[in-house]
Write a structure and sequence with these properties.
Elements lengths: L2 H11 L6 E5 L6 E3 L4 E5 H4 L4 H14 L16 H8 L11
Parallel strand pairs: 1-3
Antiparallel strand pairs: 2-3
């Protein structure tokens, strides 16, 4: 799975369809933008299938869950299924609430 695939899967697994995953230019420019509802990943993360890219994509997507925006289906402190998947795959979940 590419970084884009990881982010999209985490969103869809949690019923979030109004946040877009976009490829942006730059280095170390990956971020979640709550105002535009976008997860922005640099090309090296967006297209890569490396463990590092997956971790960055999961981290930036996880930032969505730490914003004060209402998330349908999630209760504060609840661990999402995708977060559990990332942990099972060996990614650190320390950046995600409830993990």
């Amino acid at each position: 799975m590419s970084g884009r695939d990881i982010a999209e899967r985490m969103l869809r697994d949690n019923g979030i369809y109004d946040v877009m995953v976009e490829c942006v230019q730059g280095e170390l420019s990956d971020h979640y933008n709550p105002d535009k509802k976008t997860i922005n990943s640099v090309r090296k993360v967006y297209n890569s299938r490396s463990i590092a890219a997956a971790a960055v994509a999961a981290h930036e997507t996880g930032m969505l869950f730490s914003t004060p925006l209402p998330m349908p289906g999630l209760v504060s402190g609840q661990t999402c299924a995708s977060c559990k998947l990332c942990i099972q795959m060996g990614f650190s979940g320390s950046f995600l609430p409830g993990v």
